[in-house]
Amino acid sequence: MVWLQNKKRKKPDKTPNNIPKADMLGYETCVVCGRKTATPKTRPLSRRQYYVEGCGQLCEGCYVELFL
Ligand SMILES: [Zn+2]
């Protein structure tokens, strides 16, 4: 469990240090935290949730944090 020791959570910041290979899975990644979202890449932008124009796809958590 080395990664647990190296990864001391000093700040509650969302750092994209472990970006999942969402491209291969066909889902968008959150532009803020780098995590996989529940939004398929094939979904039209107009029908997406948590998509911010000029910014990109956000996950629900980041969207709520930033915009609500
Ligand atoms: Zn996020």
Question: What's the order of the H and E elements?
Answer: HHEEEEH
Please outline the major beta sheet: 2 strands, antiparallel
Which percent bin holds the helix content? Answer: 25-40%
Shape: flat
Q: Which structural category fits the helices and strands? A: alpha+beta
The molecules bound to the chains, other than polymers, are: zinc ion
Number of helices: 3
- Rg from alpha-carbon coordinates: 14 Å
The overall average pLDDT, rounded, is: 81
Number of beta-strand segments: 4
Q: How do the strands of the widest beta sheet line up side by side?
A: 1-2
Q: Please state roughly what percent of the residues sit in beta strands, choosing from under 5%, 5-15%, 15-25%, 25-35%, 35-45% or over 45%.
A: 15-25%
Low-confidence stretches: none
| First-to-last CA distance | 36 Å
Count of distinct structural domains: 1
Tell me briefly what this model is.
The protein has 68 residues and is of the alpha+beta class.
Characterise this structure.
The strands form two sheets. The protein has a two-stranded antiparallel ribbon. β1 and β2 form a beta hairpin. By secondary structure, it is α+β, with helices and mostly antiparallel strands. It contains three helices and four strands, in the order ααββββα. The longest helix is centred in the last third of the chain and has 8 residues, at 60-67. The model has no long low-confidence stretch (mean pLDDT 81). The protein has one domain. The structure holds zinc ion (ZN). Residues 30, 32-33, 35, 58-59, 61-62 line the site of zinc ion (ZN). Residues 30, 32-33, 35, 58-59, 61-62 line the site of zinc ion.
